[in-house]
From TrEMBL, chain A:
GO terms for cellular component: plasma membrane. It comes from Alpinimonas psychrophila. Belongs to the transpeptidase family. The lineage of its organism: Bacteria, Bacillati, Actinomycetota, Actinomycetes, Micrococcales. PANTHER family: PEPTIDOGLYCAN D,D-TRANSPEPTIDASE, PEPTIDOGLYCAN D,D-TRANSPEPTIDASE FTSI. GO terms for biological process: cell division; cell wall organization. The keyword Cell division applies. This is Cell division protein FtsI (Penicillin-binding protein 3). One of its GO terms (molecular function) is penicillin binding. Keywords: Cell cycle, Cell division, Membrane.
UniProtKB/TrEMBL annotation, chain B:
The lineage of its organism: Bacteria, Bacillati, Actinomycetota, Actinomycetes, Micrococcales. Residues 10-24 have a biased composition (Low complexity). Residues 1-24 are annotated as: Disordered. The keyword Transmembrane helix applies. This is Cell division protein FtsL. The chain crosses the membrane at residues 43-63. Keywords: Membrane, Transmembrane, Transmembrane helix. It comes from Alpinimonas psychrophila.
Length: 588, 207
């Protein structure tokens, strides 16, 4: 009996032991083998700290390497609302207790916020969550402010790095550069269209650190290597860009105009040296400019160009062999064509006996339409297309306009004539500059270039891919047209406004009625000029466009044209022209 | 030590003169092998092993101390590097914004410089004047009523003329206070107008 009991007890104990050991074994296998990797990961996660290695977004530089857009490290200032309490500050004299109110005043003095604003951030965060440990005080402060904030030694004030963008020259070329948002993503302009070149790749790493915050040697694991972005080199010259912007802005303000643009292009290369718009955004302070003015009007705003197109009609006629500088026409003030279209000139005059040169010099609509009619609408459309109208330029600017050039089949009786003097079609300022570039470059229109290329961190430049040049008109036709335009500057009304002693200039003005949006013309004008300098061997195209000047009318743009031309001649050390302008008869 | 004691298992030698009452015991003894006789005492090995282990422990300790103090040095240098990068950024940003064309032009104009719209060149090889010289008017500056090409980075950057004027005022005030104290200090000369040229424009003496 006794032994039986003992034996049973032994068996039960043994069984229990076996069961427990089996249980432990199962758990052990589960922990050590089944869930091992997950636990390892978790433990590593607790010990190691992930960090982002910020890559640098590429710079945007001008033709001379002057930095227009640069990457900087900015800082987001954050706060721990639940810990926003009094703290003790140790100073040389005594320990001072600083209340949150006092601290808020100190912070506000640096960030430019009102103390109430800062305290409101804390109060709002605590109202939403009483244990709130995180709220932004201000985003994107610069190094100097960040250091000043650090020096305050406020225990509940923190910061996080936030890569930002700085534009040291402000709104110089701000219209072209565009800008980058608070999140570091490109939002407009070249920043956006060339983002592929500029953007870098942020790296990632993990490391372990001791209780005192010091990184444990050999614990750093880089999982993603950071890669800096490449730079964009523009064809723009920042000094000239500034000059054109300043001169333009002054005149737009003085004449009470709505907006204006200036384009300077190199004739032999098609490179844009300056593209000024007014108003212009300061990319450092995007909010300070109305949304409509944050881009480049020169690329984005099409307008009916008016008489500057007459020079292109004349070049087309010369190229087709249907006219010469001395072709004669009787030009009354107005004319009615057999198809019912009516054309008249800008100001009242009697019947003038004009040559083609004289038609350009007088800017006679009646004259150019009579002479130009011999060229079929289809041919004229082809010439206008080859001059670059109705299509975006090779630049491919963000939201660039194609302008409006309806197919010739859609031209009505009036448009059939109006297109010869630049009405019934719309162009951008860049397109006009590009057409004149062809006239200056022996009839060859080169692709318009704004971005020279992408410069890799190691310094190698990948040039922008450009389409082939187009022979628009013959060399002879182009050169003869430039000579005719020169006679406008030497003999026309503009002579005293834009002449620069010692230099030969070819130019054409345009004062164009603008569509009111309902099929009629409004009473506002866009005045524009296009010029080639020096006329003996054109090197630069300058166009000026001023929209709806309240005063001065056609006189609004020539002062800008003259100032910009003089600056270009000085800047690029253009030698004065050796001989005078050719004298072509304007009357017969 | 067992090797040392092993040799002592011999029975004491008895004198041959001693009368033999009992039969002579067999004179066998354990003889150490040649290797055993040449072997060093085992204590020596123990000491060497122990000291090597101790040495390794100490070396490891020292190494780890060195590595950790290196970590602090690295950490310190990294912090210093970060600070220097920040200083560099701060200074180069200052330089870039001061070098912006708006700032340079505004300062140049504040100092009385104007823009001439009539370019003329002097050819050094033969002294020929290219172009038709025309004097610039006093109001030919481009800035005139103030810069219209905004740059929010230049908000708190004063013109050189303002800085000079402030400095001059401060200098005058200092001089006045010193003069009040009885010392005679010459009034500081501050250039206000255009600087007169002596001996004409500086130029190359050779062609």
């Amino acid at each position: 009996m006794n032994t039986k009991q003992t034996r049973r007890r032994t068996v039960v104990s043994m069984l229990l032991i076996v069961v427990f050991v089996a249980l432990f074994m199962v758990k052990l296998v589960d922990i050590q083998i089944v869930q091992a990797s997950a636990f390892n990961e978790e433990s590593l996660g607790k010990r190691s700290i992930p960090a982002t290695i910020y890559s640098e977004r590429g710079k945007i530089v001008d033709a001379n390497g002057i930095i227009l857009a640069d990457s900087v490290m900015r800082y987001n200032v954050t706060i721990s609302p639940k810990n926003t309490k009094d703290f003790l500050r140790v100073t040389d004299r005594a320990d001072v207790t600083i209340t949150p109110q006092q601290a808020a005043v100190e912070i506000g003095n640096i960030t430019g916020q009102k103390p109430e604003e800062i305290l409101k951030i804390v109060a709002d965060a605590l109202a939403a969550n009483p244990l709130s440990d995180f709220a932004y005080v201000v985003k994107g402060v610069d190094v100097d402010k960040f250091r000043a904030l650090n020096a305050l030694g406020i225990p509940w004030l923190y910061s996080e790095p936030s890569p930002g963008r700085s534009y040291p020259n402000g709104s110089v070329a701000g219209n072209l550069l565009g800008y980058v948002g608070q999140d570091g993503l490109a939002q407009a302009g070249i920043e956006l269209t060339s983002n592929e070149c500029l953007a870098g790749v942020n790296g990632e790493e993990n490391y372990q650190r001791g209780a005192d915050g010091v990184r444990i040697p050999g614990s750093t694991v880089t999982s993603v290597q950071s890669q800096d972005g490449s730079s964009i080199k523009l064809t723009i010259d920042s000094d000239l860009q500034w000059f054109t912007q300043q001169v333009l802005a002054k005149q737009v303000d003085a004449t009470g105009a709505k907006w204006g643009t200036v384009v300077v292009q190199e004739v032999k290369t098609g490179k844009l040296l300056a593209v000024a718009d007014y108003p212009t955004v300061d990319p450092n302070n995007v909010g300070g400019t109305a949304e409509a003015n944050r881009g480049s009007l020169a690329f984005m705003a099409p307008f009916e160009p008016g008489s500057t197109i007459k020079a292109l009609t004349a070049a087309s006629l010369l190229d087709a062999g249907l006219a010469e500088p001395n072709s004669q026409v009787l030009a009354p003030y107005s004319i009615e064509f057999p198809n019912g279209a009516k054309v008249h000139d800008a100001s009242m005059h009697g019947v003038l006996q004009l040559t083609l040169t004289g038609v350009l010099e007088q800017s006679s609509n009646v004259g150019i339409t009579q002479l130009g009619e011999v060229l079929s609408a289809e041919k004229r459309y082809d010439y206008l297309s080859k001059f670059g109208f109705g299509a975006t330029t090779a630049v491919g600017f963000q939201a660039e306009s194609t302008g409006i050039l309806h197919p010739w089949q859609e031209w009505d009786n009036q448009t059939y004539y109006n297109t010869m003097f630049g009405q019934g079609l719309a162009t951008t300022a860049i397109q006009v500059a590009s057409a004149y570039q062809a006239l200056g470059n022996h009839g060859v229109r080169l692709p318009v270039q704004l971005v020279e290329g992408c410069v890799a961190p190691d310094g190698t430049l990948t040039p922008t891919k450009l389409p082939a040049p187009t022979q628009v008109v013959s060399d002879a036709a182009a050169t003869t047209t430039v000579n005719m335009l020169e006679n406008f500057v030497t003999k026309g009304w503009i002579s005293k406004y834009i002449s620069i002693p010692g230099y030969r200039i070819a130019a054409k003005t345009g004062t164009a009625e603008q569509s009111a949006g309902d099929g009629t013309y409004s009473n506002s004008y866009i005045v524009s000029n296009a010029a080639l300098i020096p006329a003996n061997d054109p090197q630069y195209v300058v166009t000026v466009t001023i929209a709806s000047p309240a005063s001065n009318g056609s006189m609004a743009s020539p002062p800008v044209l003259k100032a910009v031309m003089a600056q270009v001649l000085k800047k690029y050390r253009v030698e004065p022209s050796p001989d005078g302008a050719p004298d072509l008869p304007i009357r017969f | 030590m067992s090797a040392a004691t092993a040799i002592k298992f011999t029975t004491p030698r008895t004198s041959p003169d001693t009368p033999r009452t009992t039969p002579r015991p067999t004179r066998f003894r354990v003889v150490a092998t040649r290797a055993q006789r040449h072997a060093r005492p085992r204590v020596f090995y123990a000491v060497v092993t122990m000291s090597v282990i101790f040495g390794i422990i100490v070396a490891q300790l020292l190494l780890s101390v060195a590595v950790s103090s290196g970590a602090y040095e690295i950490s310190g240098l990294q912090a210093q590097n970060r600070e220097l990068i920040r200083t560099h950024q701060s200074i180069s940003q200052d330089l870039d914004r001061l070098a912006s064309p708006q700032n340079l032009a505004a300062n140049a104009e504040a100092l009385g410089m104007v823009n001439n719209n009539t370019p003329v060149y002097l050819r050094l090889s033969d002294g020929a004047v290219l172009g038709s010289p025309e004097a610039a008017s006093v109001g030919a500056g481009v800035i005139g009523g103030g810069t219209l090409v905004s740059n929010s980075l230049l908000k708190n950057v004063p013109l050189v003329t303002t800085t000079a004027a402030t400095a001059a005022t401060a200098a005058t005030a200092a001089a006045a206070s010193q003069a009040g104290a009885g010392a005679s200090v010459p009034t500081p000369v501050v250039a206000t107008g255009p600087v007169p040229l002596q001996n004409g424009l500086p130029g190359m003496s050779t062609h």
